[in-house]
Amino acid sequence: MEFSTHTQVSAAKVKTAALAVGIFTDGILSPSADVIDRASNGAIRAVLKSEFSARAGATLVLRNLPAVAAQRIVLVGLGKQSDYGLRIYARAELAFANACVHARVGEAISALASIACPGTDLRDRARAGASAVGEATYHYDATLGKPDPQTRPKLRKFAMLVERGDVSKAQHGLHEGEALGEGMSLARTLGNLPGNICTPTHLGDTAKALGRTFKSIKVSVLDRKQIEALKMGSFLSVAKGSDEMPRFIVMHYRGPQSARRAAKAGSQVADGPVVLVGKGITFDSGGVSIKPAGTMDEMKFDMCGAASVIGTLRAVAQLELPGEVIGLIPTCENMLSGRANKPGDVVTSMSGQTIEILNTDAEGRLILCDALTYAERFKPAVVIDIATLTGACVVALGSVNSGLFSKDDALADEILAAGRQALDPAWRMPMDDAYQDQLKSNFADMANIGGPQAGSVTAACFLSRFAKAYRWAHLDIAGTAWRGGKEKGSTGRPVPLLLQFLLNRKAG
Ligand code: BES
Ligand code: MN
Ligand code: ZN
Across 25-121, where does the E strand assignment appear? Predict the structure, then answer.
């Protein structure tokens, strides 16, 4: 996708296959819509009453309007003007891009971003708009026998109509939105690929390939022997139930100014890196505590945390953000076999703490805990782990908010704000010490489950015991990383939140 800005003074003179103009309810036309309406002798106002409601996200195509250079004018509903905000803007841009994809046009221009939108600046809108276009043009056909080229989106060029003085702001936002879209698209494809293709080895190869594309990312992929040498006994206990080889992926991004920044800091200790840890279970059968068959296929998505880390690092590298970002991915399958974990088994984590495995299906925390211990060596400024960790989080928050867990109020606020800004929201969950009691074991330092109550909270409490050496937060994305049912597929969340968090840090 090629993103650009367009600065034609009159919307009526814009030559394109499809031009989007915004309409609020109660017959309120955005400035560009008004220009088109006047040029075409009221062609827009004529359809407003009967044919177009202007409800948020609605579209109507008008073709060949007199005295209008664009082949198609796409009216896009913005809802009530008093309710207008970033979310509705992004929804409108998505609706327009979807209309362009369905009409199979190759190039389009939108006048939506230049409409005043409370609480946002043009850079935010351009970023959100470009990422919406990325969403609309995402297409999965990697595992179809005969991919049909007719179903591949044709849209290649997307421009935003802005005023001359706004070009630079818009270009910055478009650039960020493009990188975000590509990071999300990579994360989505990794999520959508089946477990027999997207194996731990495949995740490792994908990370390595990224390291070849972007010289700023150094990648090492550790195999079973190297993981054993690190004494990651908890991670390895999950991995050993499967014939598929485990991997521990380390992606180290160094931005252009990071060396200079460190030097400038002189005797002061330079800011440590942000470390992102992603759960990479490429298939979760539950193990001996086996899951019901009904929707077990969806457990191929149990590596979406890992995918979001890879996607975020891709976006960071493309944007050449200053500073350091490290991605850590423990990845394996959770399967049943004669070598698999059994309920009651006790394992020793890299930290030296022992764990009684009461349920082999609580495997995510068993692989993450060792990665959290490994993270200590980087002296991180912040560690965030991202995991499709608990069904309980889906019960609590559904598919709207990711669950955010942290005892660090300032860090939690920073993450929540990034999520809001990126339209990828999270909701903070409690982490009172009192919940820790549920993890008590008679035979080890802790159990890997905390009983039926507050399942997503006790999972976070388990992780917290391995994250004491640095500022830490945990995102449970079990409800937000993929959709089930007819629209089954990976969403690319929370790449928008993570990238926004990093963008805000670098700006500050
Ligand atoms: N990957 C699952 C969590 C999950 C389940 C995500 C359903 C999305 C939908 C995780 O490994 C798991 O199985 N968790 C258990 C924990 C329980 C045994 C304490 C769960 O949520 O049932
Ligand atoms: Mn599980
Ligand atoms: Zn799992």
Answer: 28-29, 59-63, 72-77, 107-110
pLDDT tens-place string over residues 54-69: 999 999 999 999 999 9
Please identify, by atom number, the ligand 1 atom nearest to the C-alpha of residue 388: 6
Neighbours of 212 (CB within 10 A): 9
Residue pLDDT, tens place only, 142-188: 999 999 999 999 999 999 999 999 999 999 999 999 999 999 999 99
170 within 8 A of 160, measured Cβ to Cβ: yes
Distance between CA 268 and CA 112 in Å, rounded? 46
> How many helices (H) and strands (E) are present in the chain, helices listed first?
15, 21
* DSSP letter for each residue of 438-487: GG--SSSSEES---STTHHHHHHHHHHTT-TTS-EEEEE-TTTSEE-GGG
Please tell me the predicted confidence (pLDDT) of residue 264. Answer: 61
CA 489 to chain centre: 13
Active site residue 154: no
pLDDT of residue 9: 84
Q: Is 365 known to be catalytic?
A: yes
What domains, with CATH codes, occur in the chain? 2-161 (3.40.220.10), 180-507 (3.40.630.10)
What is the 8-class DSSP label of residue 111?
-
Strand (E) or helix (H) holding 248? strand 247-254
Query: Pick the catalytic residue: 247, 365, 465, 505?
Result: 365
Q: Which residues line ligand 1 (CB under 6 A)?
A: 284, 302, 359, 361-364, 388-392, 394, 449, 455, 478
Instruction: Look at ligand 1, atom 9, and give the residue with the nearest C-alpha.
Output: 391
Dihedral angle, C-alpha 230, 235, 241, 243, nearest 10 °: -60
Catalytic residue, from 291, 407, 471, 483: name it: 291
